[in-house]
Write a structure and sequence with these properties.
The structure is a single chain. The protein is built from 16 helices and 14 strands. By secondary structure, the protein is of the alpha/beta class. It folds into two domains: about 5-50 and about 90-205, Rossmann fold; about 60-90 and about 210-395, Rossmann fold (3-Layer(aba) Sandwich). Helix 14 (about 335-350) packs across helix 15. The protein is globular, with a radius of gyration of 20 Å. It binds pyridoxal-5'-phosphate.
Amino acid sequence: MSRILMKKFEEGYFGEFGGSYAPEVLTEALVELDRVYKKLKDNRKFKKEVDYYFKNYVNRPSLLMFAENLTRHWKGARIWLKREDLNHTGAHKINNTIGQALLARHMGKQRIIAETGAGQHGLATATVGAMFGFETVVYMGDVDLKRQELNAVKMKMMGATVRGVSSGEATLKEATSEAMRDWALNVKNTHYIVGSAIGPHPFPTIVRDFQSIIGIESRKQFKKMNGKLPDGVVACVGGGSNSIGMFYGFLKDKKVKLYGVEAGGIDSKPGNHSATITMGEPGFLHGTKTLIIQDENGQIVPAHSVSAGLDYPGVGPEHAHLARSGRVQYHSVNDEQALDSFLEVCKVEGIIPALETAHAFHFAKQLAKDLGKKKDILICLSGRGDKDAAEVYRLLGKI
Ligand SMILES: *Cc1c(COP(=O)(O)O)cnc(C)c1O
């Protein structure tokens, strides 16, 4: 997937990152998707349709909540939470799958496919597959299938076919390659719903646009409640979809500082973390130029994080650019710190956050102290942590 076979699109670059470096067999599919999306994205009827399902199925707008207890407990800036965990299926991922399913319907496709790691994107895809009546196939590494059996069962309950992938590490990277292969073979009737702001153009743009509802709503809600904008905005970064969706609403507000939080894993040794921006190098992965974790020979090194959703050796190309340009600051939080914050948010606020989001909470706690009282921090609560309860219990041995 790293061979440069196509450099077709002029747009789709974010500074030096992004573009479309996909195999030739995908050219036709990407060109069609780009053409249809460009036509639809400003179409009033299409926008109304997306809006309708956001309201009528996802439960948007999601709540913007003042976190009284965390504010008191951390003794610093005021803490606000954008509650994407209250969406149908419990995370932000449904925003993207709804949007792309509607795109697929407009393109006349009968079949949707997806890759999934921990199973959250697979679930969100199976959900819209059932609701819109698509034939749905989800690719999942065999190792992940074993770790996340319940998610696979849920997908099957909703009528999706779950295909195990046994090659390589048998996790997300291989599942993604397999989904791309399926798409290349079946492009006539199939749309590939990429799960994060990654992959060849136009995917990073499409996913960002559908997730930007997070930032757009947050900005409006915050302003209405406070008559100002937040001072800092914090989101966790895996592939980078919840964070780019949140940041996009504030990019032009130069006074609003933006912070992305990556998974520092165990330590900074390649293979032990997923901190692509803070520790990675430019390279090519899944059809895009971005920052990736590689060894001395340019081989991709498998990523690690306590949270399966941050466990990706690349990152959306727009983040690589925002890091380089300095508009967004990126930090990493390790497994232990994330587990700490997971339990703290449970106990103090009565909210079980996703382990992914717990990384953002840990960073926000320090930021709250640094900024001090009278300042405001907005955190994207990307998802709920029910899915992580068993894993946290296993890791800590006790609670
Ligand atoms: C998948 C997931 C993430 C990480 O993905 P991004 O594309 O970086 O947003 C973060 N939080 C939750 C709850 C997730 O399910």
